[in-house]
Amino acid sequence: MGDVGIGDFLFVMIVADASQNAMSGDAKSIPDGLALISVLVVWNVLIDWLSFKNTWIRGLIEPPPLVLVRNGVLQTRAMRKEFITKEDILSKLREEGIEHLSQVRKMQLESDGQLSIIQREKSE
Fold this sequence. Notes:
membrane, cell membrane, DUF421, transmembrane, alpha+beta, transmembrane helix, CRO Repressor
């Protein structure tokens, strides 16, 4: 929420390309370019709205969260899948003021690319 995702970036690139093609062509290409941009905007809004309303569609568009650390143990298969190193994880833990992996109950890569950390309770 509030971040620019890869889908948003690609949308901006496609709209920029469509508008560039419309401006560099003959006089008829400007209305054609505006029509193309309008269709792209409608599709983008429609896909966002559908993914908001329907969890099945959201599952097709957004990846599920990926657990990287569970009960202080690195999940190396998940880390390899996303090209995340142990040093990346330890760096993020230090940023959050966590000194050891053993203090982490769960760390996961969210669908928006952010890392979320749930610490163990002091009594655990």
